[in-house]
Amino acid sequence: MSLKRAISAAAIFSIIVPTGLFVSAAGSTAATSQVTFLSEDVPAGLDYDGPSAAIPASQVGMVNLMEPLVYYKKSGKSPSGVNLLKFGYNPADFQGRLAESVTKNGLVWTFKLRKNVVGCKGEKFTADDVIYTFARAKSVSGAAPIGYFLSAVGGIKDFATFDGKVPLGDEVKKIDDYTVQITQEKENKLFLPALTIFGMGMFDKEGMEAQKTAKDPWSHDYANTVNVPSFGPYCLSKWTKGSEFVLTANPKYYGGKPAVSKIVLRKVPQSANRLAAIRTGAAQLTERLTPKEFASLKAVKGVSVGSVVGNESLFLNMNYKVAPWDNIKVRQAVAYAINYDKLIKNAYYGQAKKWKSLVPSTYPGYSVPKTQYTYDPAKAKALLAASGYKDDGSLKLTYVAEKESTLGPVVTQIKADLKAIGLDVQLDPLPQTQFGDRQLTKRDLPFAVNDQEKPIGVDAGYATYLFFITGGLNNMDNYSNKVVDDTYKAIATEADTTKRNAGLATIQEELAKDVAWVPVVEFATQWAYSSKLTGITWHPDNCVRFFDLKI
């Protein structure tokens, strides 16, 4: 990069005591400081039941404004110094957040809520906020019912039909102002993990009900476009859609005022500009650079690069309801057409590995299917010919436009690989908001490259339920397989790990045979940041928690 370009980028960006089974989250000391965080995008919406919920930047906003009942404990560091979490299923693996403690008696979980929790406008947290949050989830009134989905994942009683017609009953019950009981239908090991996910953040009932209308009794529009009343460590002070998202520390946060008092999140789609801003100190944190750009920063004084092999991947999704992608021979042809090794070398500079299943290889329950697809253009041509499909030049390969820096080399090679077997696809970049809406709510993208979807629940069963069960919440390809559905149903409440993993292996084999997706590569999650900034922690949603940071 030229010095002139670096100076130009700099000019643009310069502004710049526990009880029960859980250990309570520790707070940090107050300070006056600012972190400028550059990303491909800023939040498009803040309603986790809304159309923007699948967009990574929107999730960043949600997790820093909202607060869950429980969360994972920290445990160790990656080789590059990134803090890690301890994942598991048992109460000992979790710490209290809004719930100070939890106990279990059979299928009934009792949550003792933390007292003196105060939101950004002075609102106090009580059991009524928990009841409101689950009642809103059960209404299935949002564009993407993630709250309901997660309640069903955790096996909460009477959360199974997604019809929205049955109001919340005693499955989530207020005992007193600071005690709530939640009853499961059956034993389910995903109960506590599901409560950690962004779609289980607690709403402030009073703040939400103040914004309701006759047409929108659960305030979806307000939460999605204006603000999300909750009890998190940060408060929203400015939101310029498509440009900037500014947070200030909640001085009354129960865990102590955050060490970083102001976060300025800016949209800078071009990775080269984000790179220049980090080099010059105009920004303190960025993500989603190209592998080559991250590598170039490792020798730069005053800059750190943190990485974790977590759950990120790139895959091709082909819609089962759209021809020719409903033809398994076409799907197989695409899977054999990709030159995986060349892609890893040229687009990822060797910093990726071929993905062998449709579940992150780091997750419990991961299995390598016997059915594998390797680069074989001759076989791909034969399969395409056998499919009967005649290319007419109308096929499009869609990807997120804001990711041009990282996905441009990927889609360019995939286009060339497909042309070599007789499929002349046109590249179709879409704005992030449109891509997310069509993927999560409309489910009408015919053929797309995706590197931003990941199962946030750290478990192969969760990944199955999220992406591949018939009618599943994020079944973006409208995939359906009775063996997958029946096998998942049989193991959803299976306590025997060996039996459960055997079922999950069966599911992953079916997904591979069907080419439910074309798994391409797995790659590390990386950040570049000022060496003065500490506290970067890997979370399974890949969102930075600003409360973790100090500078």
Automatic annotation (TrEMBL):
Protein's UniProt keywords contain Transport: yes
GO MF annotation list: peptide transmembrane transporter activity
Coiled coil (UniProt feature): none
Any one Gene Ontology cellular component term annotated for this protein: ATP-binding cassette (ABC) transporter complex
Keyword match Signal: yes
InterPro entries xref list: Peptide/Ni-bd (IPR030678), SBP_5 (IPR039424), SBP_5_dom (IPR000914)
Domain (Solute-binding protein family) ranges: 94-450
Record key words, sorted: Signal, Transport
GO annotation, biological process: peptide transport
Family per similarity comment: Belongs to the bacterial solute-binding protein 5 family.
Stated name of the protein: Unannotated protein
Organism for this UniProt entry: freshwater metagenome
